[in-house]
């Protein structure tokens, strides 16, 4: 058996972990949640919830992963032999499998838009019709989904250093560079300052219990906790690295990218007379319309969709890595074959989600499409339950001496983390879970 792979540096791990977190949640969901929930107040609550609730759970996954030094299932078996806790790992494996099956569909949509922007100028007057045409075309969505999964598989099959870390090292800096370019262009539009005020001048009338819960949910999901991705990534981390510092870096990068996404989008939205409350269509419908109205708009649209592709890929490789790591169980010579086998299986499982806006649009599960059902099953049920069990395991099963030895922080910070992961995080997760399921 070959020696277990490891990250070559701390920065490689942080960029990969941040890439896992910074996906469509930061670039697609965060902007429209901000737009629909009062702008700056939502952002402020999101930052507070990310640090107070999301960060302790993220650190809990880091602790478990590095202590176990294996995939999530094996790590939990080592840390709690003879107990049922490895079910957390199995749950994370199942959630990641289903999540990637429909996440890859959205990745395909991004590839479709990027291809159109490169080869055909997107100057259609009704971008809503264009979006509906793309997602309803069975040949296009399946081909684009297959290409996206092929890219994901190709990166993961190359291993930690040669695949995931190398890809993250150039995709994440490029993501920042593209964001800055787009932010500068957006801020130089006439009327852009209205969007800046929306983002950074608080309107306290939006400080409500509903806004707080939505911000808490966004913070929780944006850090990619609850699917054991961070547990898996931390298992490749050397013992000398400081977990607390790495977790804080990931959280800060996630917050920064989320706010940058707002700076790219809302000054342009206000400058060109669109509503910030457009909802989920903000990225695929409103932004192309905005780009088509400004000089060199098609060039900036290409940059934006490349950025979207990078962000989506860094998350998808983390999801596939969870499945591959659990499948090969430290036998890294099997990685390449496992990546292709599991990747193709995930693609096949995702076919109904890809077709749920076209030939399978009449198929409904609990009143929603197949795509919506897969989303609900993972983001509203699987991820909260996974994060809840991770918090309980780290807070009550692992001893103080075990966690202190891994964290190596100031005793006061160790105690604060233990309190948050034992009590504050589980309560917050249960509240989010109840609200999201029952719509209270």
From TrEMBL:
InterPro entries: Na/ntran_symport, SNS_sf, YocR/YhdH-like
Coarse class of the protein's main subcellular location: membrane
Domain of life: Bacteria
Residue stretches spanning the membrane: 12-30, 42-64, 85-114, 134-156, 168-187, 207-234, 246-270, 282-310, 338-361, 381-399, 420-439
UniProt keyword annotation of Lipid biosynthesis present: no
SUPFAM superfamilies: SNF-like
Annotated keywords: Membrane, Transmembrane, Transmembrane helix, Transport
Membrane topology: Multi-pass membrane protein
Annotated localization: Membrane
Pfam families the UniProt entry points to: SNF
NCBIfam families referenced in this protein's UniProt entry, alphabetically: Na_transp
PANTHER family (alphabetical): TRANSPORTER (PTHR42948:SF1)
Name of the molecule in the record: NSS family neurotransmitter:Na+ symporter
């Amino acid at each position: 058996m070959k020696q277990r792979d490891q990250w070559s540096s701390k920065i490689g791990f942080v960029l990969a972990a941040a890439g896992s977190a910074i996906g469509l949640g930061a670039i697609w969901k965060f902007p429209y949640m901000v737009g629909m929930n009062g702008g700056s107040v939502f952002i402020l609550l999101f930052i507070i919830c990310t640090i107070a609730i999301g960060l302790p759970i993220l650190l809990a996954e880091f602790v478990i992963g590095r202590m176990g030094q294996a995939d999530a299932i094996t790590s939990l078996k080592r840390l709690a032999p003879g107990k049922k806790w490895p079910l957390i790992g199995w749950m994370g494996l199942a959630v990641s499998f289903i999540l990637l099956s429909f996440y890859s569909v959205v990745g395909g949509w991004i590839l479709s838009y990027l291809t159109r922007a490169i080869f055909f100028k997107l100057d259609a007057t009704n971008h809503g019709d264009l979006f509906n045409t793309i997602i309803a075309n069975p040949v296009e969505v399946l081909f684009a989904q297959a290409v996206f999964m092929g890219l994901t598989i190709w990166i993961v099959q190359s291993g930690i250093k040669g695949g995931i870390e190398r890809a993250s090292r150039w995709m994440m800096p490029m993501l920042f560079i593209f964001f800055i370019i787009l932010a500068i262009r957006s801020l130089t539009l006439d009327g852009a300052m209205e969007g800046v005020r929306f983002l950074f001048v608080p309107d306290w009338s939006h400080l409500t219990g509903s806004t707080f819960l939505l911000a808490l949910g966004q913070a929780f999901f944006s850090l990619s906790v609850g699917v054991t991705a961070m547990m898996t990534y931390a298992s490749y981390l050397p013992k000398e690295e400081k977990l607390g510092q790495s977790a804080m870096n990931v959280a800060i990068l996630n917050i920064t990218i989320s706010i940058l996404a707002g700076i790219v989008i809302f000054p342009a939205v206000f400058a060109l007379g669109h509503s910030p409350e457009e909802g989920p269509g903000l990225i695929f419908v409103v932004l192309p319309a905005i780009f088509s109205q400004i000089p060199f708009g098609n060039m900036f649209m290409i940059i934006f969709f490349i950025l979207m592709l990078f962000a989506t890929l860094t998350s998808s490789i983390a999801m596939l890595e969870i499945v591959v790591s659990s499948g090969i169980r430290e036998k890294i010579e099997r990685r390449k074959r496992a990546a292709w086998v599991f990747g193709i299986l995930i693609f096949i499982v995702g076919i109904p989600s890809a077709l749920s806006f076209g030939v399978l649009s009449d198929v409904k599960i609990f009143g929603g499409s197949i795509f919506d059902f897969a989303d609900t099953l993972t983001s509203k049920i699987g991820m909260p339950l996974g994060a809840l069990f991770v918090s309980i395991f780290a807070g009550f099963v692992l001893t103080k001496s075990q966690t202190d030895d891994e964290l190596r922080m100031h005793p006061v910070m160790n105690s604060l983390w233990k309190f948050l992961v034992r009590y504050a995080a589980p309560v917050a997760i249960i509240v989010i879970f109840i609200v999201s399921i029952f719509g209270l």
